[in-house]
């Protein structure tokens, strides 16, 4: 039995996606993992998803083409979708400004530095 | 229409009185009508002819004059008839119209058929036809309002003028009664009128004269001077008719009612006043000016006073000073020598005040001039001679060469001329000599004045004050010496006696035989010696018949009036020429009127020898005169009260008639005025005689104009000219239309009248000035109370008139202060000064402070203007608001002080160069500081330009450019380098502006500032700014690359290594995979370091004040173990109270890095290892030193790279090389500096320069 039913990952980095999904499966982190390589696709999914199948956790990258993580957050907020799931920023950035920004956003549960590993996933479980 | 002719025929048969009246009484004709049927009148042929009417007339359709005439008769008759009448009586009545009257007899006849009452009115006598024009018309022409009032009946008659005076036509007021008068008169005045009239009628007062208000048609009140006299009384001596005039005196009244103050404005003083416009051109002068200078207002209008008032002796300096003052536009007083029109110099004190308009521009200058020349300079000289000369019987006249005014006359002269001494001293010789008008007289004395002849002797006439001409012989000499001003002495002898005989004889010769006048010469007892042919012809007596007999015996007849005979006899006894009118009879019994002039003739010994009588026939004239006299008298009488001179000329006889007022106007009396046209003409000013002759040419011809009006200057008996308004009308013409008689009036408007008019204008002007707010006037009564303030004063004082007039001059409401805001001594206020000195004050300046603290500064000028018995009643002040001026001045003074201190201390150089020669005129001493040369170096005479020599050669082009700018714009601003005395280069900013004077460049002013430091800063700053910006930009990019791009790759590698390790432990055992894992971790670590460094450099963290010893203590706490393990001496020499400015995290990192390095690299070979940390302060900088005696660094080998990234200089396992790189960046990012001294094997010393935070 997986920890979460539905988990969503938004990241344009293919390699990161492969590695992360691999780890999550190993750790039996989620029943279904939905992955999107840009924010727009993720949004249209979230909007079309019913309450029952709504992801419990969403991992969001900051630096993405088209729509970056912060813009994605703004749209989520407008559509009142932010409160329905736990959102984590996953970023390779070690820029303290990005970290600070994430901390200031009340809808972001945590900031996870890439790469993800079982230890970091455990902090998500704890929350 | 009834057949009046038929009815009259019946009436004549019925009432024989009718026949009698028609036969005897209807001298001038009759009127017949039915009572109450005035539209149907029957006039007899005589009356209708005279009136140029048809015999049957409708009264209503008649024109004014004739209708009025008939109407007055009819109305009078019907009124008199009343209800009761007796058919067989003849009634007498008279109709008075203004200035003409009619005697009527009338009777009635009742028709037997219709019972209607018919009236026949026979006109016995009327003055109506005696003039071609009704006297009423003339009185209208002459603009005299005339009224007649029947005290009994209340009947009132008026003329057109009377009505028009109050805006009506006569028709509108019809019928006029006392009630009409009452309605039109002010109730108050009417009450008074009744009293005044009653008093006059009762004989309690001699005349009826009063000023009344009458309501004009348009509703306002007209002031009227009403005068009147009793004309007729009835048998019982009771007053019947009164007659009088109305004169419009509204203007005078208004004037009288004007503020007394206006009349008293200093302008009407004896001082001359000139008002000129802003350009100095005269717009007004007062009477005093005219009198003093002899120039009339009209002569000087538009001229500048300086153009004609100053003469050869006027001091040029005074003129220059005067002009200068004028150009300053301030009030000033200046003494100057002026010349009158006649060339008399006089010294005067001239006070000039500019009047400003609302815009603050000068609109006018008012100049008040007071003559200060010593008056009557010859007085002393004359006094010496007076006594001597008074002794002689001869008449002595001394007059001045310049103005020809008598300066002395002796008693004999005074006796002869009849003038008082004072009067004489106002006159000139030509005023006494009718034969020598001014110009002729001047010509006469010219040879004397020019010393060509020693004296002149001549005969002429002196006209005495009473008009008597005195034949005189004049001996005239010119006296000129150094002691007195040149003058003439005339010794005059009366030669009346001497000339008498010659004169009479000459008259005799004048009596030509052919004259149409009758000439009779008798001996000394009146017996005829000679009659001329005209006499023979007229009287029918031959010379032979009458010789030896007395003329009266055969010439006088039954109707010759005894009073005339008596007058003739009396006249003869006087032994003086006289004229008498008398009625004579010819041989055939024909009556004729003559005017006889009797001339006594004396022999050499003065005995009477003969009488010559010259008689002119005035029968016709006399006849008409008789008829006219009455109405004339009435007209004259009316005019008597009206201040008009009346004149009348009979062109047929040459006889003239004037009233007393006429003579009075010209200074004569009826006795001494020669009543002839020629005499009158001789009095008319030569310049005006043309008007008179033109009039004669146009009016005194057949069909010429009837009315005329002209203004003439007529010579007064005292020699001056008076302006006379001469209005007249032709009152009688012959069949051909040639005028026979002209009547008219004289109104004086010169001198007094003119003065009055001018005064009025003056008042108007000054009331405008006073009323305006350009001139601020305040009048203070002697009590100190302010009695008057005008609009200007309101403006200046800021409170309304009534509030000002409520105060005293030293009112506590306005505290008097000096211009420096100190209390002002009350005694030095203008008012006490004027009261004390009795003199004017000028420009006394003080301030007033109101209770609320607001201040006004005033300039006050003024002086006494209303004196009674030498005591000042009022003082008038003009108050000028100088608040702005004072404030500005204060500011200016302050600014000047400031400027001076600034000039003294400033480093900027201010300079001024004269143009066009570009010579340095002024330069501040600070130039020495700038260039090393003192100001005198630049100011001394030198061929070249010392300043330009200082300009750095490479920058000369800039200076050339500056000159081009100067030519183009009038100013320049450049920065260039100069060489100082010590050959240093300095940057200067030099600014210059051309100052123009009268449109030409006169100066070039400017300043120089040393901008060397600024230039240096600018240069280094520019460099610095460029680098920093560049670096920051690069660092940002670098940071991004490190923290995002590189990091994401490194993260992925780490992730992959993790997965490999996890999924394929076998592969993980592979040596290369192990190495990959290691490399991947290293890469990640490096990236973290790198990120730390760049985030330091691009950090935006705030600086804080940090106690350095605290920071060291924190480090010691954290690294206690490390230090003890290292086995070395840690020497903390940091002072307790050293504060620096830094980012706390950075400072901690710096300290940690430096100290851990020092500990790390201690030399284990040495027995005594130490790390020493200390501090010292220097000019706002704290230097922190970290010294060790560790391994040391080979500076020659690594010096440059010491602070580079990833440099390690030791083979120590822990050294990663990032430390010093990071430290240097951190030090520099908080504005500090780090240096290092090191020697291999000896030790290393780091010095960190930090900002002192205690400042």
Automatic annotation (TrEMBL), chain A:
Mention one GO biological process in which this protein takes part, according to its record.
phosphorelay signal transduction system
- Which Pfam family, giving just one, matches this sequence? Response_reg
Q: Which UniProt keywords apply?
A: Phosphoprotein
* Family annotation (Gene3D superfamilies): 3.40.50.2300
- Top-level lineage group: Bacteria
What InterPro entries has UniProt attached to this entry? CheY-like_superfamily, Sig_transdc_resp-reg_receiver, TCS_response_regulator
Supply the SUPFAM superfamilies for this chain: CheY-like (SSF52172)
Response regulatory domain span? 6-127
Sites of 4-aspartylphosphate modification:
61
What PANTHER family does the annotation carry?
RESPONSE REGULATOR RCP1 (PTHR44520:SF2), RESPONSE REGULATOR RCP1-RELATED (PTHR44520)
Q: What is this protein called?
A: Response regulator receiver domain-containing protein
UniProtKB/TrEMBL annotation, chain B:
Query: Which reaction(s) are listed as its catalytic activity?
Result: ATP + protein L-histidine = ADP + protein N-phospho-L-histidine
Q: Which molecular function terms from Gene Ontology are attached?
A: protein histidine kinase activity
Write down the Gene3D superfamilies for this protein, in alphabetical order.
Answer: Histidine kinase-like ATPase, C-terminal domain, PAS domain
Q: What is its EC number?
A: 2.7.13.3
Q: Where is the PAC domain?
A: 208-261, 330-384, 454-507, 576-630, 708-761, 842-894, 972-1023
Q: Which residues form the Histidine kinase domain?
A: 1041-1254
Leader sequence residues: none
Pfam families reported in the protein's UniProt record: HATPase_c, PAS_3, PAS_9
Q: What InterPro entries has UniProt attached to this entry?
A: HATPase_C_sf, HATPase_dom, His_kinase_dom, PAC, PAS, PAS-assoc_C, PAS-like_dom_sf, PAS_fold_3
Which controlled-vocabulary keywords does the entry list? Kinase, Phosphoprotein, Transferase
Q: Can you tell which superkingdom this protein's organism belongs to? A: Bacteria
Q: What SUPFAM superfamilies does the record tag this protein with?
A: ATPase domain of HSP90 chaperone/DNA topoisomerase II/histidine kinase (SSF55874), PYP-like sensor domain (PAS domain) (SSF55785)
Q: Which residues form the PAS domain?
A: 131-204, 255-303, 381-425, 504-548, 631-703, 762-807
What this protein is called in its record is histidine kinase
Protein species of origin: Marivirga sericea
